[in-house]
Structure formats: C-alpha cells, structure tokens
Design a protein that fits this description.
By secondary structure, the chain is mainly beta. The longest helix has 9 residues.
Length: 525
C-alpha cells in the first residue's frame, strides 16, 4: 500500500489536471446549485442528471492565472482534450489518497482511477470511468462490510482472501453512460451507474446509496412537466439465493412525473416495482415495460408472480430566491382504518421526509444551511419474497438504515474563495433484531416480513434492539481544482452508537486526504 501511494505521489504533477463530470456529489454542487432553486428557475431539481457534458461545475471560483501554460492547464482545465466541430473527447485521471487514524490503528484509502467522456455530433454524449481501490476502514465500517458479504457501501464487492490478516479491502468500480438527445423533448440513456430522486441529502424514493446497476432511462420534457422512466437490472448477492451458481438477478421499473404547479411549488409522483428472476426463467416482464401505467393493477393481475410495488410523492416549495422547503412520502402498504386507530399494525409501511435548505444564509455569500428529518416504519421496503426487497447488492435503494428509524441530519457549508468548511451532524434512532430472539422487528429489509415471529399489532419505530446513533463530521478543505472538486482535505469524524443489547461503540477518525471528490459514499450509518 505504502509503495503504491509513493508511486502515485511521485507522479502527482501529472495528476494535477481538472475534470468536468456531473455526478450527485452533495457538497461539490452546493455553491452553484442555488441558481437552479431560485424563483425564476424552471429546473426540476429533484431529478439529478447522471451526466451532462456541458454542465457548469466551476462553483464560480476564480481560476488561477499563471504565466506558465502548463500550470494554467494543470489547475484549470482537463488533462487531455481534443475538440472538433462534431467531436469532443476528454480524458482525466482521478484519485483518492487518504491517511487516517481511528480505534488506535492506522487507516488509509488508495484509489487510482480515470474518466473518459465526450460528444459525437450534437445529440450523442458518453461517459465512462474506472476505479481501483484498496482501503482499511474504521472498525464499525469494516464490521458492516464483512457482515454484508464483503460489499463496500456504494462501491461493490471486495476481495476477501487476506482480509483476516491485514484488514485490507480490495475493490473496483466502473461507470458508463451513453446519452442520445432525440429532440428538445426526448432523451434516451443507457448506462451502468446510479440514479437519485429528491431534493434532500437522503432520498426515501430512490437514492445513490447502493452499488451501480445497468439501466435504460427515458426522459420526456415538455411544458412544465418532466417525466422519467427507468428500467433497471439489480442483483442479490446472498449465496442462499444463487441460481445456476450465479447471483440471482431481479428487475425494477420506475416512473417519476415532476410538475411545476406554480412558480414556487413543484410536485413529483413516483412509482416503482421490483420483481425477481425466478427459477422457472422469468426475466424482465413485458407487463412492466409500459411507460405510462400504474403498477398496482398490473401486480394484482399477475397473482403469485407479482412484485414489490411502491408509491411516493416528492415536493418542494420555494420560500424566496435562496430558501426552500422539501419533502417526500413513500407508501409501501397501509390500511387507513389501522392508521387512524394507531394500532401499530405491522403492514402500515411508510416513510416520509421533511427538510429545509437556505443558500447564502443570513446574507453571507456561500454559507448554506440544511436540515432534514427522515422517518420510516418497520417492514417498509421489505417483501414477502426476500428477493423482491427494495435493495441492490444487499444495500438499500433508499436510506442506508433500511427501515424502522428516525433521523435528523443537518449541514453547515461555507466557502471563501478556495477554502471550504463542510460540517454534518446526525442523530438517529433505529431498530434491530435482538440477538437470540426469534422475533422479526422489521428493521432488516433483506428479510421476508413473514420470516420468524412477528407482532401483528403494537409495532413501533426503532423497536427491538433500539440503537441511538450520533455522528459529527467536520472537514476543512482547500480546493485545488473546482472543475473536479480536486481538494486537499483535513477532517474528523466522531461516531457513537448505543444499543440496548450491545456494548457502546465509539469511533474517532482523523484523516488527511488529497482527492478528486466527485462521488457520494454513505458511511454515515
């Protein structure tokens, strides 16, 4: 590992080039995001683009000015670029070099990567990247990875042969996308990556928490409406569900309709369904290919072959040019009479989110405040058939805590020229099964809601092995190249987890890193 870092550091002058990707990274896009949330903007901000070749990502930071053309290129532009009238190609190196300490032990991240992106004519754009990683994580994260069949959160399956000796994880990740803009109304995308629907830090509908997956997306944009269809192939990595010695596939289809009802108010309607690849050979069911349909009637018509259908709402209300409120509601199953009776019926399965964001808070330029509250009932996102849970690579497609939780997450972000402070505070209470107790408390969404004993009534959020979680994360960064969020960053993460039936787990992770920070990795659980 040390030799690898030394080699990368030796070639650092080569790596000091900028990139221009458009991903979901929350902190990177924070500065220029405000222009899309102002009253005059008609943008559908709940729909995050996978990649937009011409997207502005410079955060309005003044570029360096040097007499040296090499330094100007190294710190302000792409590493390699070829431009012609009908063709544009960009190649960039990416990296993440981090050294830290927690749990009285050294930790590190060593990532080498590259991206290739471009344009062919006026209608076709493409993007691909590849990441090779080695890392030793803090104990709580290491335990979570091992318990989840060596899946690193959001980044795929890790090699595990020598892990018990050196605690080292070795994993790789690739992304790819080709986009075709048919005309001003229709865009078609075929890719291997992630999708995100929402205006918050978390999404209870569809987030980028899980690993990449193949998808085909159709986006229709007209008048005050944007309508998206996403057809995806997912996987379950649990060995007990293997089919012909391969991990079992499952499939999903998602519809999302976003409408700007007024200048201030946006409303989004969401539905999705997940169904398994059956042992009899059932694959991508043509019943779910219809781009305009409600899935519940289709699900009922298919009988025992039906999937896991979810419905939801997303909304945002602009208070003024710099502040807005947002929220989500996800319905899995519920019965209104039981809801009204407050009986704690197990099948009242729903989640919701309430949040607020304020750009240039108190009139201070580039100071952003954000706070949101997330809530999920037990058994939400799970299904009678565990293969049809709302998951991919054994990770939730919505919130990383799965189900049966309440969470408060707040941010303070501030940038002055190239200096940036990013702080996050999380308080959460979530449920878990009690060791040695056969009762299913509904927090593990990978488990069938019919597995084990289950309380028919009296179910409460965070029941079972109730755990209180606190995370405080503070980072100070100097932005070397804003085009790719290349930065030198010093940070500390303090985490404490208190469970009813387990010892208190405390982590204090201090680190320094040099990286191109363009992805979201959710280690805050």
């Amino acid at each position: 590992m040390k030799k690898s870092i030394i080699i990368v550091l030796a070639f650092m002058p080569i790596l000091l080039f900028s990139q221009n990707s458009f991903t979901f990274n929350h902190s990177w896009h924070n500065d220029y995001q405000k222009e899309y949330h102002c009253l005059d903007s008609t943008s559908h901000t709940s729909l995050k683009a996978n990649f937009n070749f011409g997207q502005n990502t410079d955060s309005n930071i003044e570029p360096y000015s040097f007499k040296s053309s090499f330094l100007n290129g190294a710190l302000n532009n792409n590493a390699l670029r070829y431009q012609a009238d009908d063709f544009d190609l960009i190649i960039n190196p990416l990296f993440h070099l981090e050294l830290g300490n927690s749990d009285s032990a050294s930790r590190y991240v060593n990532t080498r990567a590259f991206e290739v992106k471009g344009r062919v004519g006026s209608k076709i754009t493409f993007y691909t990247s590849f990441y090779e990683n080695q890392a030793i994580f803090p104990d709580y994260l290491e335990d979570a990875i091992v318990d989840n069949y060596f899946v690193v959160p959001g980044q795929g399956y890790s090699k595990w042969g020598d892990h018990e000796v050196d605690h080292d994880f070795d994993f790789a990740m690739s992304n790819g996308l080709i986009s075709y803009q048919a005309d001003k109304h229709f865009n078609l995308q075929f890719g291997h990556g992630k999708n995100f629907i929402g205006d918050g830090y978390r999404s209870l509908l569809l987030s980028d928490n899980a690993f990449n997956y193949p998808f085909f997306k159709i986006t229709t944009d007209f008048w005050k409406v944007k309508y998206v269809n996403i057809f995806s192939i997912l996987q379950d990595l649990r060995p007990e569900f293997e089919l012909n010695n391969t991990f079992r596939k499952k499939y999903s289809t998602t519809h999302y309709l976003s409408i700007n009802l007024t200048k201030r108010w946006n409303l989004g309607l969401f539905e999705t369904i997940v169904w398994e690849q059956s042992e009899s050979g059932r694959g991508f069911d043509i019943n779910y290919l219809n781009p305009i349909i409600f899935y519940r009637p289709v699900e009922f018509s298919l009988g025992s072959a039906s999937g896991n259908a979810l419905l939801g709402l997303n909304t945002k209300f602009k208070l003024n040019n710099s502040a807005h409120l947002y929220g989500q509601l996800l319905l899995d199953e519920f019965r209104f009479s039981e809801l009204k009776a407050k009986s704690g019926w197990w099948a009242n399965k729903y989640s919701y989110q309430l949040g607020a964001k304020w750009f240039d808070a108190f009139g201070v330029k580039n100071l952003t405040l954000q706070s949101e509250y997330n809530f999920s009932r037990p058994f939400t996102y799970s299904h009678l058939n565990p293969l049809q849970s709302y998951t991919h690579y054994n990770q939730a497609l919505a919130h990383p805590l799965g189900a049966s939780f309440i969470e408060s997450v707040s941010f303070l972000r501030y940038r002055y020229k190239r200096w940036a402070i990013d702080s996050k505070v999380i308080f959460a209470t979530h449920g878990a099964n009690i060791p040695g107790n056969p009762l299913n408390y509904g927090s593990d969404i990978l488990t069938s809601y019919a597995e084990g004993d289950r309380l028919e009534y009296g179910n409460e959020v965070a029941q079972g092995n109730t755990t209180n979680l606190r995370i405080v994360d503070v980072r100070l960064a100097y932005i070397v190249n804003p085009t790719t969020n290349m930065k030198v960053e010093l940070g500390v993460t303090n985490r404490e987890s208190k469970s009813l039936y387990l010892p208190i787990a405390k982590t204090n992770y201090v680190f320094i890193s040099f990286k191109t920070d363009i992805n979201n990795y959710y280690y805050d659980f």
